[in-house]
Structures are given as structure tokens and as C-alpha cells.
Q: What sequence folds into this?
């Protein structure tokens, strides 16, 4: 319970209308859905670990949002949050994930062989390829809510599992609070190091408490498989390499993840997962696969084209700057990745990226030659 | 009143009941005493305390200095009646390790009871932050009688503006780190209602942060009144910025000299300010305004959080006591470049800041100079410290302008003495002071023929004390004049041992006096009586001599100097000195009375 007001049973003596937040200036999913009636019904509830409604929505209250960008505005503190606060979270999930209904089932597919192609993206345009997801360890509270002891427990268990990886996955863990200056500089140069979050979207949820206690970075010796421990989620798993061989990246991704999952099962625990929501993570926007597969691709002409946004929309892709979310593109190089997380399997999403990026590169080449791309316009996926 | 009944029925706190029947704050204090505060909601704990104990190895703040694993284990399962926990109180200190040079407090209170429930941690933090103030044994003086302020008008060629601020919390509602939205809105309502009752030059308007127009906002910015959502992680990590800007606002009077911030870092921050150097008027308005606001909220059944031990209760332990920061913007181009500037400020118990407030740099040579202390000194004392100090700084600046040299002033005495010594020094018989003042050589000569006993009494005292007594004439004159200050100045030169020994004075006196004859021990023990009792073993004669001495001195001064010296009689050679006869009987003409035993 990050905030002092949330375990205040005495606050229930105040009428719900007196406690209901002022969301008149707000534009996020939570503010759209949270009516006074829902607030009244949910405010006396809490998960078995003590996470309350105010804990869930605090980040959305403190960050009214942006007229153009629709953030989620709430977080989960544990696996049960999605059950106890269904009444709020189901409509938010539906809104955020393209109409995903409370009765829908999510398909998990981590069989990299099912991916078609993906090994031939033109390296003259595709500078790097990357797949990331997150995993939560069942039985522990999530970053907004965990105690220091729990966070250290997550770290310990994760490091034990990662240390037993072998072959091209063999690697080393660097705890944020113990790393030497030399190690830190190396991780910065490799673009691996993550810092204490500065975004108020994250800070307001309480996930940055006690920084850098219990946080760290693990990566394999070849620097192609990387795990963040206790940043926004228990684990963020990243597979990456230079060039356009997304197939190889995805192969390693699936192998690594499956191995780690097996290791956890051997220790008597597992990842948070269920049939309806897939893999459970802190932010409702990362449910399902939690997967973002993307490339850094040079498309200066395409990006200036009037139909660029439309193409992306049809391909179910999104663009970001090369610094990650909330950054701007540099010199016509964009981060292009799947827009969806839930309702499609991992293979399906990576397939969309592979096919979509291939098409974008084709369009770029045509535009370079001064040709039209109208005949290449895709259908809505 | 509906409010009171509702609060009692809600069972929030016993204080509600006691205020209703008018038992007053002393009883409230009693009820808030540690033993009476029961734990609140069950604290969810999955791991043993040792697994949750924070890693404070790289930390430099008061919380980290005092939060041992043992104290953590003792307190981590506790919660205040509102459900506020230790982990929440210390979160800001865990998240902000601090700076090697600046030691922050590193923890906050979520409600009034935090100071009781977490006293095992907060008391040592308070002691460290507030110069040794011990909440368990000391009381904090509250004094808002601004008429006591002396020389509160500064030279306006140097002082550009004057300002006094403090904070007040509304009893019965949680503090900003912990309050719910409804509680915060209630604070706003209670305070705004009260402020609406202010009249005359205090009448004003409230501007809610959520509802202000662009024009109002611009005006408040131009007036330098507007406060923004805090960005400092020291503040945001405590949770006080939640739900911004809900229920936050600014009230100010029409003349823009009295300003109140609502629900920023505290329930209220009260600020009195003016351009120029009339600190007296600023402080007058400050006190009047505060008392009026208090009266107005009491009419509706509310009161401020206050108790005898900690004074006014605020969110940050650094603001306990008076919560008062009185300061000026003062231009000191020459002094600020003098290498002794910092030491001078230290000795005057002042701190400098840039004119943008805490953590800003000075612009040009204009500084924000204000009091360092908050707790253990009253409002009047602190503002007087600022007045005296700033006047001294201006004098220094003027001297430097003329090419004269300046002096580092002696350190201002902190009156944080244990009550016994305070009470002892305060009512020292004016007689003794007046008596001893014009008696330079007398004391020396009086003591010389004192019986060996007294000398033996003095022998085991640190040689320094003897050395102090040796050049007594000048010392007595200069040193005893402002007697409290003197004792401290004298004590300053004593070996640390003597200082530390004198601190818990009763015990000290016992220890120091152990090897002394029991007689002297008993005599010196109750220090108020010290002077009288020290004189006890002296010949009754001396006592008798000294008691009516003023009259005697006056009388004697009218007499002629006798020709011959009589044993036992003390005569001074200089005509400006005074003749004393060790005689128990006198008439204005007698000069050969009995001498009585001179021990």
C-alpha cells in the first residue's frame, strides 16, 4: 500500500461522493469509466493483500492525461486486482484492447516455428530488431504494492533462475545498487541500463519506491537476451540484435522464456497467467502477451507521407521515437511495433510486425524512386 | 454542533470528546500520550521485519541515522488509529538518500498520532534536528504576543522585504501525506469558512487552484503568491501531492500582506509579508491574523493541532514547535563576500537562502536571511533573534562600507536548558546581580580570608573555574551583567566535561559535589537557592554585609574614608572604591563593630 490514505478504513465514514475524485479535466481510460456509482461499489473492497481502489486509480487521478494521447490511468497491485476490481477494469480492458470482452479467451503461442519468414528484413533499412514482454511471479505483489521484502524475494528468485541458464543464454546479473562504475558505463554504452523512472505516470503508482533496492539487469554474454528485474514489472524480458533477422530474435525470445518458466516451475512457482487475460502484468495495457515486437527502421520518405498514419493503423502497428515510448523520431528513423497486446497470440503479433515492416520498406523504396504507393495500400487487419 | 457530534460518533479520536466538554489541550495531550493510542488497522506483513528493513547504507538523513533494525522491528507492525504505518512515514527518506552536505529529515507524519505511535524513531530525529530538544523531558514555549518584539524596524536601504511564515494543522484530520480526498476537502472548507470571517485589513478572498481563472492565476503569479504542484522528490515521495490540484488554494487579504496556502505541504501555511523593513508590523499582523483564524475555527468546534511537548504539529518534524520562519530579503554586497559571513550567520542562529526560497541561489548580493530554529524557542524569541541578527548584519555591512573591520559576534545562547537551570537562572535575585556589579575587588578580598573550607570547596573544581574567579573583577562586571548569558559564556570555556556535567543539572551538582563536604553539597543542590546557600557557610557576617549592601554602599559612600585599617575591615585605596566593614552591627558612624567570625 504505497499511499497513506488507502488503508484508512475510517475514510469509509465519509460519503462516497465526498471521496470521489474530480475527473473533470481528465482524459484517460480510468476517468472515462469510473462513475460515482462504480466508485461507491468498489471503494470498500480490497484484494487479499490489501490493495484498494484508490491504490488502483491514484496514477490516473494524478495524471489527467493529454487531449491526444489516451493513457490507461490505473495499475494492478497483485493478480487478484483484476478480479476484485473487475467492474472497473473489464470496461477499461475492453476499451484499450479493441473490444476484448470479459468472456473472451486469450491464446498463448510461444512456438517460434509458427512464424513465417521474418529472417529477411532488409538491413539497409531495418537497423535493429527487438521483442520484449513482461512476466510476473505468482504469489508476489506487483511493483506498485510490493514491500521491500517481497521485491527482494522476486529478485532472489529471478536471479537464481537466470543463473542456471546455459549455452548462448548463459549470462550475469548486475544489481543496480551494487554495480561498479565500470559496469554501469558498459551497460549505458550497450543501451541496457534502465534508470529510476521519471515519468509521473509511473511514479504516481508507487512503483519507484525504495529505488534502487531489489532492481537489476541480467544479460547473456552475447548481449542478445536481457532481463530487467523489478522495474515496471517483476521481469521484463528482451531479446534483441542489430539487423533485420526478427526470426532469430523471436526464436531466442521463445526459447529463453520457456526455459525461465520451466526453472520457476521447478522451484514450485509459476508466472501469473490465466485463460482470460493471458500473462498478468502491472499495467492493464500489457495484458495478454505483454509483447512488443519492433524494429528501428529508416523510413524518412514514408514517414512524411500523408497516408503514413493510415497505413500504420491498418497494419495494426504503432510508431515511437527511437528513445522508446514518449520520444520523438530522430532523422526519419522510427521504432515500429505492434499496437496490440491482448487477443492475439505472440506468434500472431510478431507476424504482423514482420509482414507490416516488410511492406513499409517496400513503400519506402518506391517513394525513393518517386513512385506512388497507392497500389500497395493494405487492407485493415 | 453537528460537526462535533458527527466526529464523536465516528469515534475518530478521544480528543473530539474532550474538546466538546472543554477540557482543553492539556487533557488532549494526555490522551495522545503514547500508552493511550491504540493501534489502527492491521498492518499487512508477509515477511519478517529484517527482510523489509530498508537499505540505508548510502543514506544521509535524520531518519536513516536513527532507524536501527531494532527500532524498525518494534514499530513496523504498528499503525496509527488512521492506519498510517512506519513504512509510509519513512518512504520519503528511503527514496531520497540525501546529500553529503545537506542533512534532510527523511520522514513525515501522516497524522497527529504519528508523533506518539512512532515516537521511538521520531524523538531521536527531533532531538537531532532541533539542537538536542528532547520531547520527553522538555516543553515548548508558545508566545504570540508581538508587543514584546523590540527594534523591529530595519534600515530599508538594506532590507527589501520582511516576511514571517508558519503552518497550522486542523486537529482531527489527517496530514497531507495520508489524508483522503474527503479529509483534504474538509480542511479546505473549514479554513475557507474561517477566513471568510476575517475583517478589516485582514478581509480577503480565496482562490481555489481548481477553479481559478487564467486572469486570477496570472495575477497571483505576478504577486509571487501562486504555489505550484511540488516537483521536489523530497515532497512527492511522501504522497502529499496526490490528487493535485483538488482542494488546494490560496487565500490572501485585499492588501496582499497576509496570505494563506491551503493543502500544500501542510493543512495551512500562514504568511505575513510586506515590502520594506517593518518586521514589527509584519509580526503584529502575523500574530493578530493567526489568533483571529484560531478563534474563528474554534467557533465552529475545530482547533489546531498543538501540544506542550511539540508545540504546533506539522507534517515535517523540522517544522514542529513554532513552525516559524521569519526572514528578510536583505542586500549585503560587502558582507556576503566576507569569508566570515557564514560564521557570523551561524553564531546569530540565522540561515541564508537565495531569494527564490529553499534550495535556490542568491541573486546578486540579495539574500533571504531567516531563523534556523523552530522548536524550543517561542515565536517572539525567534523573531527577536532575526531582528537582532539582521540589525547586526546591517551594522557589519555599514562598517565594511566605511572600511572598518567587523567582529564575529558571540554565539547566541540557545535557551534549551533543562527546566531546572532555566528556572534557576531566570529569577536569580536581582539583588545578587546588583550587589555584585559594583564590587570588583570586594569579591576577591572577601574570598581571600574565607576559611580553608571554602577554598577546599573550590579546589576540586576545574582549575579553569578558579582561573575564572581569579580575574573576577572585570569578569564579574562584564560577565554577570546579563546573568543567563554569562553563565553560558563562562561555561563555554569550561572543559566539555563540566558543560556536559552541568546539562542534567541535578545529577551534575551531585556528582560535582560528591567530594565536597556534605554541607556544601546540600547547599549547592537546589540551584535557585545556590547563591544564598553558597553564602551559608560564609560568615553570617558576610551575608549580613551583602544583604543590605545597596543601602550600606549608599550609606558608606557618604562617609569619609577611615584613617587606619582595622583587621577584618576591607578598605579600598582608590577613592572611587567602596569601603566594606565586616561588621554585624552598624550605625552610620560605627567603624569598629564586632567582626564576627570570618570564615
A:
Amino acid at each position: 500500500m504505497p499511499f497513506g490514505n488507502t488503508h484508512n478504513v475510517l475514510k469509509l465514514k465519509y460519503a462516497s461522493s465526498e471521496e470521489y475524485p474530480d475527473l473533470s479535466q481528465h482524459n484517460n481510460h480510468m476517468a472515462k469509466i469510473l462513475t460515482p456509482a462504480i466508485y461507491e461499489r468498489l471503494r470498500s473492497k480490497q484484494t487479499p493483500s490489501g490493495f484498494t481502489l484508490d491504490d488502483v486509480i491514484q496514477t490516473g487521478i494524478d495524471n489527467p492525461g493529454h487531449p491526444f494521447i489516451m493513457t490507461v490511468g490505473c495499475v494492478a497491485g497483485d493478480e487478484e486486482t483484476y478480479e476484485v476490481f473487475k467492474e472497473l477494469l473489464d470496461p477499461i480492458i475492453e476499451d484499450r484492447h479493441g473490444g476484448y470482452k470479459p468472456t473472451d479467451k486469450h491464446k498463448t503461442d510461444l512456438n517460434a516455428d509458427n512464424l513465417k519468414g521474418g529472417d529477411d528484413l532488409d538491413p539497409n533499412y531495418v537497423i535493429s530488431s527487438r521483442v520484449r514482454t513482461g512476466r510476473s511471479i505468482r504469489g508476489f505483489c506487483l511493483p506498485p504494492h510490493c514491500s521491500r521484502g517481497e521485491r527482494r524475494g522476486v529478485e532472489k528468485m529471478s536471479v537464481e533462475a537466470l543463473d542456471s541458464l546455459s549455452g548462448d543464454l548463459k549470462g550475469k546479473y548486475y544489481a543496480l545498487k551494487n554495480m561498479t562504475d565500470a559496469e554501469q558505463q558498459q551497460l549505458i554504452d550497450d543501451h541496457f541500463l534502465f534508470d529510476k523512472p521519471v515519468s509521473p505516470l509511473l511514479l504516481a503508482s508507487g512503483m519507484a519506491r525504495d529505488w534502487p533496492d531489489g532492481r537489476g539487469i541480467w544479460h547473456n554474454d552475447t548481449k542478445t537476451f536481457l532481463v530487467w528485474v523489478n522495474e515496471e514489472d517483476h521481469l521484463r524480458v528482451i531479446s534483441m540484435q542489430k539487423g533485420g533477422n526478427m526470426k532469430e530474435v523471436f526464436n531466442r525470445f521463445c526459447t529463453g522464456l520457456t526455459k525461465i518458466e520451466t526453472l520457476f516451475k521447478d522451484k514450485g512457482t509459476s508466472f501469473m497467467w490465466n485463460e482470460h487475460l493471458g500473462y498478468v502484468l502491472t499495467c492493464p495495457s500489457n495484458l495478454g502477451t505483454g509483447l512488443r515486437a519492433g524494429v528501428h527502421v529508416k523510413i524518412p520518405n514514408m514517414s512524411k507521407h500523408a497516408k503514413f498514419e493510415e497505413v500504420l493503423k491498418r497494419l495494426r502497428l504503432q510508431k515511437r521515437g527511437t528513445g522508446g515510448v514518449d520520444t520523438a523520431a530522430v532523422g526519419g528513423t522510427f521504432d515500429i511495433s505492434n499496437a496490440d497486446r491482448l487477443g492475439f497470440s505472440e506468434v500472431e503479433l510478431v507476424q504482423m510486425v514482420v509482414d507490416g515492416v516488410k511492406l513499409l520498406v517496400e513503400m519506402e523504396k518506391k517513394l525513393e524512386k518517386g513512385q506512388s504507393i497507392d497500389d500497395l495500400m493494405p487492407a485493415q487487419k | 454542533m453537528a460537526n462535533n457530534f458527527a466526529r464523536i460518533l465516528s469515534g475518530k479520536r478521544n480528543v473530539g470528546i474532550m474538546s466538546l466538554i472543554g477540557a482543553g489541550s492539556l487533557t488532549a495531550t494526555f490522551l495522545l500520550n503514547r500508552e493511550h493510542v491504540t493501534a489502527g488497522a492491521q498492518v499487512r506483513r508477509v515477511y519478517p521485519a529484517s527482510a523489509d528493513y530498508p537499505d540505508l547504507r548510502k543514506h544521509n538523513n535524520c531518519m536513516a541515522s536513527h532507524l536501527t533494525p531494532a527500532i524498525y522491528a518494534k514499530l513496523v507492525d504498528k499503525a496509527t488509529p488512521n492506519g498510517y504505518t512506519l513504512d509510509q512515514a519513512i518512504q520519503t527518506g528511503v527514496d531520497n538518500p540525501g546529500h553529503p552536505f545537506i542533512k534532510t529529515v527523511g520522514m513525515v507524519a501522516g497524522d497527529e498520532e504519528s508523533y506518539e505511535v512512532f515516537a521511538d524513531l521520531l524523538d531521536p530525529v527531533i532531538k537531532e534536528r532541533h539542537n538536542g530538544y528532547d520531547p520527553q523531558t522538555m516543553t515548548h514555549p508558545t508566545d504570540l504576543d508581538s508587543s514584546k518584539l523590540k527594534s523591529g524596524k530595519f534600515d530599508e536601504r538594506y532590507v527589501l522585504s520582511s516576511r514571517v511564515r508558519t503552518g497550522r494543522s486542523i486537529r482531527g484530520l489527517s496530514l497531507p501525506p495520508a489524508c483522503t480526498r474527503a479529509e483534504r476537502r474538509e480542511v479546505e472548507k473549514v479554513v475557507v469558512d474561517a477566513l471568510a470571517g476575517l475583517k478589516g485589513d485582514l478581509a480577503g478572498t480565496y482562490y481555489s487552484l481548481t477553479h481559478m481563472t487564467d486572469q486570477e492565476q496570472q495575477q497571483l503569479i505576478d504577486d509571487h503568491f501562486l504555489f505550484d504542484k511540488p516537483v521536489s522528490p523530497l515532497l512527492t515521495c511522501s504522497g502529499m501531492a496526490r490528487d493535485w490540484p483538488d482542494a488546494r488554494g490560496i487565500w490572501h487579504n485585499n492588501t496582499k500582506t497576509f496570505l494563506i496556502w491551503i493543502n500544500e505541504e501542510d493543512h495551512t501555511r500562514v504568511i505575513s509579508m510586506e515590502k520594506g523593513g517593518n518586521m514589527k508590523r509584519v509580526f503584529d499582523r502575523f500574530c493578530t491574523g493567526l489568533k483571529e483564524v484560531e478563534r474563528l475555527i474554534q467557533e465552529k468546534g475545530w482547533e489546531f493541532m498543538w501540544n506542550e511537548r511539540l508545540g504546533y504539529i506539522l507534517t515535517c518534524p523540522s517544522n514542529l514547535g513554532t513552525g516559524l520562519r521569519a526572514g528578510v530579503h536583505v542586500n549585503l554586497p560587502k558582507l556576503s563576500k566576507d569569508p566570515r559571513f557564514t560564521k557570523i550567520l551561524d553564531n546569530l542562529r540565522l540561515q541564508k537562502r537565495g531569494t527564490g526560497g529553499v534550495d535556490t541561489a542568491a541573486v546578486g548580493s540579495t539574500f533571504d536571511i531567516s531563523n534556523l530554529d523552530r522548536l524550543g524557542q517561542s515565536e517572539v524569541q525567534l523573531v527577536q533573534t532575526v531582528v537582532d541578527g539582521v540589525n547586526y548584519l546591517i551594522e557589519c555591512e555599514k562598517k565594511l562600507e566605511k572600511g572598518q573591520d567587523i567582529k564575529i559576534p558571540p554565539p547566541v545562547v540557545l535557551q534549551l536548558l533543562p527546566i531546572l537551570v532555566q528556572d534557576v537562572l531566570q529569577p536569580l535575585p536581582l539583588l545578587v546581580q546588583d550587589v555584585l556589579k559594583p564590587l570588583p575587588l570586594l569579591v576577591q578580598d572577601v574570598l581571600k580570608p574565607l576559611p580553608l573550607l571554602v577554598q577546599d570547596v573550590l579546589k576540586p573544581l576545574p582549575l579553569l573555574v578558579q582561573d575564572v574567579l581569579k580575574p573576577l573583577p572585570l569578569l564579574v562586571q562584564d560577565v554577570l551583567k546579563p546573568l543567563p548569558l554569562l553563565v553560558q559564556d563562562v561555561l563555554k570555556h569550561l572543559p566539555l566535561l563540566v558543560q556536559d556535567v552541568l546539562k542534567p543539572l541535578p545529577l551534575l551538582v551531585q556528582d560535582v559535589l560528591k567530594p565536597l563536604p556534605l554541607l556544601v553539597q546540600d547547599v549547592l543542590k537546589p540551584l535557585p537557592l545556590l547563591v544564598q546557600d553558597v553564602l551559608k557557610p560564609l560568615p553570617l557576617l558576610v551575608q549580613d554585609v551583602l544583604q543590605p549592601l545597596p543601602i550600606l554602599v549608599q550609606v558608606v559612600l557618604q562617609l569619609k574614608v577611615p584613617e587606619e585599617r582595622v583587621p577584618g575591615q576591607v578598605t579600598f585605596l582608590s577613592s572611587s572604591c567602596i569601603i566594606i566593614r565586616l561588621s554585624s552591627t552598624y550605625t552610620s558612624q560605627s567603624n569598629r563593630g564586632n567582626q564576627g567570625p570570618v570564615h
In short: Chain B touches chain A through 46 residues (CB under 8 Å). Residues 1-39, 417-427, 560-599 of chain B have pLDDT under 50 and may be disordered.
